[in-house]
Design goal:
alpha/beta, single chain, FAD/NAD(P)-binding domain, globular, seven-stranded mixed beta sheet, 13 helices
Length: about 400
């Protein structure tokens, strides 16, 4: 009998991780990506708890550790760059604002691609335009390639997935009110291996983070009620960023000067809270299903964990309906904990007035003080997400046949 076939849409983190596990289990795997190459842009991401365990089971923890950004902790700074509050990096699988294992998104994507591409077929520069599920298989139409039939389809795209609406229409995302602009700028002698964060007034924030390729990852963040800025073109976004951050000190002028030439990614932060993650033989995975947002510190962990759980259930159940239902039953409680942001977030990090900012700065100083930290792990209490709230099932990924 022929191997069951599956199409995965999305070649970021969740898609290649799933491709690796399913290819190992004997599936005929095709991954499609609408961009014409792997995207190497992206900021620092952390891998915690069950996500770390998935990497261990894949045999990739050492490869990811070798690509670590070497970020040593988080400093909140004032407009002269002086540290107001300093927090060390985590020293275990879960804790810390800076996780023990930090890596650039593009670097992790490349590692997962390299691990899966020998057995899974990748198609770049194309995307799904229609899905026709007849209960026995899914006929898929593409923008460029010829139509094909698969036993199952996985949508492993981003928060604002275009393909998701073909599966579950009228999805209402939870908008968090934060816009983030990410760009890569040259490293200077003033830079170090700390994550530095300036909290401004008027709902603004500026960050600098180290990477492992000799540059610095900068962030311009703003909180407010205006919607739709992420749909503007690059020139319009650059104009808004320059006007919004024109009066901010520290390293902000350097970041604004780089806007014309630097790689730039701009997004509106939000969460995907869907009533279900599958329909028929099509299932959602990663951010398309349950984005928790960068504020949670959990999106990458959820992507890796979800890929492992979905692969394990598909490897052990010939009926996709049963596999999808079990995947959701295992993952949903974990996802719900991950999406429960700490009280006041994200608003508390984006004060409107200088008085509010001063109060926040005072609170951070207190939290970072040696006296307070002798009473308990304040950094862990403030920054550690529930990444170890799921005990991973043990799946033996053995080959099976049939659809």
């Amino acid at each position: 009998m022929s191997s069951p076939s599956i199409l995965i849409s999305g070649a970021s983190i969740a898609g290649p991780a799933l491709a690796s596990w399913l290819a190992q289990a004997g599936w005929d795997v095709t991954v499609i990506e609408r961009f014409d190459r792997l995207r190497d842009e992206g900021q620092n991401i952390d891998i915690r708890g069950s996500g770390r365990e998935v990497l261990r089971r894949m045999g990739l923890e050492d490869a990811v550790r070798a690509a670590h950004t070497h970020e040593t902790g988080l400093d909140f700074v004032d407009e002269l760059g002086r540290p107001l509050a300093r927090f060390a990096a985590g020293t275990d699988d879960t804790s810390g604002g800076t996780a023990e294992l930090e890596i650039l998104r593009g670097r992790l994507g490349q590692i997962l691609y390299d691990h899966s591409s020998a057995e899974a077929a990748y198609v770049f520069g194309d995307q799904i335009t229609a899905l026709h599920d007849d209960g026995h298989g899914v006929d898929v139409e593409f923008r460029h390639g010829s139509a094909r039939r698969f036993d199952a389809v996985v949508v492993a795209e981003g928060l604002r997935s275009r393909t998701r609406s073909m599966v579950i229409p009228d999805v209402r995302l939870r908008e968090l009110g934060v816009y983030s602009a990410y760009l890569t700028i040259p490293r200077t002698d003033a830079d170090d291996n700390r994550w530095r964060w300036l909290i401004c007034d008027r709902g603004r924030g500026v960050t600098l983070r180290p990477d492992d390729v000799g540059t610095i990852r900068a962030g311009l963040n703003m909180f407010g009620s205006v919607r739709g800025l992420d749909r503007l073109d690059r020139d319009e976004i650059v104009t808004i960023l320059r006007a919004t951050f024109a009066d901010v000190g520290w390293e902000t002028p350097r970041i604004l000067d780089a806007l014309d030439e630097a790689p730039l990614y701009f997004e509106a932060l939000g969460q995907a809270r869907l009533p279900c993650w599958s329909r028929g033989r099509v299932v959602l995975l990663g951010d398309a299903a349950y984005c928790a947002s960068p504020i949670s510190g959990m999106s990458t962990t959820l992507a890796l964990t979800g890929a492992y759980v979905l692969a394990g259930e598909l490897a052990h159940h010939t009926d996709t309906h049963t596999a999808f239902a079990r995947y959701e039953a295992i993952m949903r409680p974990f996802v719900e904990k991950a999406q429960q942001l700490r009280p006041g977030l994200p608003r508390i990090l984006y004060p409107r007035t200088r008085r509010q900012r001063s109060l926040l700065w005072a609170g951070l100083r207190t939290a970072a003080s040696p006296l307070v930290n002798r009473l308990g792990d304040v950094s862990g209490a403030l920054f550690s997400p529930p990444a170890d709230a799921l005990r991973l099932p043990d799946f033996a990924m053995t080959a099976r046949h049939g659809g």
